[in-house]
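Following up on my earlier thread - several people asked me to post the actual chain instead of describing it. Fair enough. Here it is, all 350 residues.
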Amino acid sequence: MEKQENTVELMTFDVVKFDITRAEIAEISQKGMALEIKDLDDKAGFEAVHIALMDVVHRCAFIEKQGLAYRRKALDWNKAVLAEEKDLLGLFQPVRDHLTDEKARVVEEKARIKAEAEAKIAAIIQARVNRLFTMGCRFDGMNYTYGSIVAPQALIKVCTDDQFEEFCRKIAEVIEGELAAKAAEEAARKVEADRLAKITEEQGRVAAEQAKERERLAAEGKAIQDEKDRLAREAKAAQDAILKVEQDKLRAAELEKAKAEAAEKARLAEIERVRLEAEEKIRKEEKARIAAERKAQRRPDKEKLLEYARAITDIPQPSLKHDEFIALLVTTTNEIGKTLADLNKRMEEM
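Reply from S.P.:
Thanks for posting it. Predicted structure:
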């Protein structure tokens, strides 16, 4: 439990003294390090770890608060107070990490088990959807259809394997009829295609002879153009070589000037960077300290709200028979899931 806050008056600049000893911290740490959560159902162990963690957090917050009081009393003592504060907090850190890890391990395992169960259900539904699409079904956002056969999305999600297989069997019967009709049409098309192929073959022979003559003329024209291009490239290469020599001289002079200017800019920039980094470090350290104190004060409410969200998630779903109630249950479950996801996301940011 948090110790009652007292006003501390320092009588000398030689001693920095907090209202807690290393012996007390060692005793608290020893008790905390001995705490363990045996399994997911060990509520007593979980509660003991939670209480011990909150006690350590409150004591650390009290040390930080008392350290701030010392610094305000005597700026000259600031360095000594900070050193002692850091040392005391460092003594608490192992037990604080241990208790935090113990608690997190159980929370994470519960989340993993839930996610694994949801993933299995999602995999079954996705396999059904993939099979329907493979068979050629269409989906309009609410129903899967193949011709006149219709199945609501909600039904596909909750029906038994036998019911789903019966739906697929009906689709397969329709597909078999379509394939038979398609085979008859394909036979008629083949007869016509054979007739047109003979005509196309003769036309192709004539076209090949004409293409051969065009290729011969094109080859002669290309040879003439290639020679013209070669002469033009040689003339341009000679002109480019002369221009490059002049450009290299000018570029070398500009490069030396740019290097000198860049070196001076870099020196000034480094001085400014060091100054800004020092100021930013001081600002971030103060901001982090304030944020940590505020987070510790808000943690109990946050954990209570998280426990409330988990309790809602663990409520079992009723077993329904009628499609309209099943669909309503799915919609309600999705809305609750979205709300809880938004709640968890917002609390992670707090």
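Residues 1-124 form one domain. That should answer part of your original question.
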